[in-house]
């Protein structure tokens, strides 16, 4: 049932939610906002209870902040499984990827799923390798799609009354381009997504530059689904 009010009245999660304008600018795949925002969910064992919170980067990156907070606050039985889901506005840099792998290796009963709106400095070889290492160590990394945006809006944003379904309608094409680029990273292909900024960084352009190796390795239906090639 759609609620008539926003999440405000009597909602215990309110203080953990961010404001709609923040969500709009932080998670827009077309905006290259510097700071990173993270929403996270933690689930223990077979419990259906989900612990949710949001966080932004400080002098440390959000991922490192999460790990430090989690390690300092939690006293848990290592035999109980723990599922963690992150929704990140930027994907982890290589240093965070390394820290995440170390953290997970100390907690064998823990699983981590990462949804990200954008790929952080995706041309950087170390960042690409960092994401591959994460995935190879069992972490699920995916680009946020419409359903994750909608989910985050409902669960992490202090949306105005009656606007439960009014999450920002970002361009699906950008989500698709980032997903394609993540595909290239996983397959160790060169970058195909080019992002350029012009006019004092006011304008951001996204374009596809496909080489032979891309055509040979990426399934045609994935390339065609971007609508940018025929
Ligand atoms: Zn980082």
Automatic annotation (TrEMBL):
GO terms for biological process: cytidine to uridine editing; establishment of localization in cell; lipoprotein biosynthetic process; lipoprotein transport; low-density lipoprotein particle clearance; mRNA modification; mRNA processing; mRNA stabilization. It is an enzyme of class 3 (hydrolase). GO terms for molecular function: cytidine deaminase activity; mRNA 3'-UTR AU-rich region binding; zinc ion binding. Residues 10-134 form the CMP/dCMP-type deaminase domain. Its main location: cytoplasm. It catalyses: cytidine(6666) in apoB mRNA + H2O + H(+) = uridine(6666) in apoB mRNA + NH4(+); a cytidine in mRNA + H2O + H(+) = a uridine in mRNA + NH4(+). It is found in: Cytoplasm; Nucleus. Its EC number is 3.5.4.36. CDD domains: cytidine_deaminase. Coiled coil: none annotated. Homodimer. Interacts with A1CF; form an mRNA editing complex. Interacts with RBM47; form an mRNA editing complex. Found in a complex with CELF2/CUGBP2 and A1CF. Interacts with HNRPAB. Interacts with SYNCRIP. This is C->U-editing enzyme APOBEC-1. It comes from Marmota marmota marmota (Alpine marmot). The lineage of its organism: Eukaryota, Metazoa, Chordata, Craniata, Vertebrata.
């Amino acid at each position: 049932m759609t609620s008539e009010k926003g999440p405000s009245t009597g909602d215990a999660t309110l203080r953990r939610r961010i404001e709609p304008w923040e969500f709009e600018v932080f998670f827009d795949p077309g905006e290259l906002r510097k700071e990173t925002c993270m929403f996270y969910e933690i689930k223990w064992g077979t419990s259906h209870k989900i612990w949710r919170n949001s966080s932004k980067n400080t002098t440390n990156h959000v991922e490192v902040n999460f790990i430090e907070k989690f390690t300092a606050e939690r006293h848990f039985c290592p035999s109980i499984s723990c599922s963690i889901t992150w929704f990140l506005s930027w994907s982890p840099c290589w240093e965070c990827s390394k820290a995440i792998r170390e953290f997970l290796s100390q907690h064998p009963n823990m699983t981590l799923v990462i949804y990200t709106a954008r790929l952080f400095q995706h041309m950087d070889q170390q960042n690409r390798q960092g994401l591959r290492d994460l995935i190879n160590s069992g972490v699920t990394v995916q680009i946020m799609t419409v359903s994750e945006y909608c989910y985050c809006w409902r669960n992490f944003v202090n949306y105005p009354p009656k606007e439960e379904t009014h999450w920002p309608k970002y361009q699906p094409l950008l989500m698709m381009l980032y997903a394609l680029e993540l595909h290239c990273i996983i397959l160790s292909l060169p970058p195909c997504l080019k992002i350029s900024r012009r006019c004092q960084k006011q304008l951001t352009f996204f374009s596809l530059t496909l080489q032979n190796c891309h055509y040979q390795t990426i399934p045609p239906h994935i390339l065609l689904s971007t609508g940018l090639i025929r």
